[in-house]
Amino acid sequence: MIPTVEWKDGVVRLLDQSQLPGRVEILDCRDYQAVANAIRELRVRGAPAIGVTAAMGIALGANAVQSTDRQEFVTAIGKIGDHLASTRPTAVNLFWAINRMKQVIELQPNLSIVELKACLVHEAEAICQEDIEMCRTMGRYGAELIQHGQTILTHCNAGALATAGYGTALGVIRAAWESGKNIEVFADETRPVLQGARLTAWELMQDGIPVTLITDNMAGTMMRQGKIHVCVVGADRIAANGDVANKIGTYSVAVLAKAHGIPFYVAAPSSTIDMDTPNGDAIPIEERSREEVLSVHGSPRIAPEDVKIVNPAFDVTPAEYVAGIITERGVFSPDDIAREFSSGR
Ligand code: MRU
């Protein structure tokens, strides 16, 4: 599969997800502003992928800094970091990755600017590689929760496209499939931006994993008919109390799952766990443009032009609905997240 994001010959190369599945286009970002625009416009999206891309954006911006004065360099990186951090507020991986990049400079006071620039590229590539490894490990833990013959419902896209590779929720599904389990997936289309229809359906079909696409309002009836055995979704931020922010509509899936006695799992790397956010109410929820609701992926307008619209991009699923959080360290009850992850990531 084409990498979601990579550092290639001094540019940040992205698979432009806004064009999928119709066109497979590569976007080369040559400055950090282009990286920030790509994140804002959902050309690259998904919490882990946003973090990796922002790290590469910092490396890119650092390479363009002319000054050889350390203080001026630090100030410039601060400005680049702030610009990238302003793109999307909910996915904590973005802020985690930016902080990790800044620490490279803080922890190495004796390096020259040339050496620091090389270290920043190295760190961004390490974050990228670690993300793939975390997804694979998480996939192995999560696959143990999936039984042969089961059908899994997922929401949005938490796949290879949403990470540096392999995926979180889809990593679990992929690992179960690779271990020989005969499973099927139901993918919610995920209005308004259709990550399920455009990306999850495409990604699973590329791998030959059986997938059935449903509109978001069909999930309840599929559960009632006994067609769904387990739900697995990703996360944009997990608060210290185990509350989970993920794509809008996730909460509805979790409530429906509980009503039907279906286990609802969240798969996310430790970079998505935010011990500084005590609970879901403290998670900032991104509000996106009215145009996303007013039409369907560039279609003609489907509602009166002046209709009042709200467009929260994420919702919060309270911890009580979550059967388990699948991480690269194992599967935890939401109640155990604080204890397990309080000692840092
Ligand atoms: O708006 P998006 O497409 O960035 O939202 C993505 C999601 O909500 C994913 O489920 C989440 O980031 C987890 S991705 C492994």
Automatic annotation (TrEMBL):
This is Methylthioribose-1-phosphate isomerase. The gene is mtnA. PANTHER family: METHYLTHIORIBOSE-1-PHOSPHATE ISOMERASE (PTHR43475). Catalyzes the interconversion of methylthioribose-1-phosphate (MTR-1-P) into methylthioribulose-1-phosphate (MTRu-1-P). The active site is at D236. Pathway: Amino-acid biosynthesis; L-methionine biosynthesis via salvage pathway; L-methionine from S-methyl-5-thio-alpha-D-ribose 1-phosphate: step 1/6. Belongs to the EIF-2B alpha/beta/delta subunits family. MtnA subfamily. Substrate binds at R45, G46, A47, R88, Q195, N246, K247. GO terms for molecular function: S-methyl-5-thioribose-1-phosphate isomerase activity. It catalyses: 5-(methylsulfanyl)-alpha-D-ribose 1-phosphate = 5-(methylsulfanyl)-D-ribulose 1-phosphate.
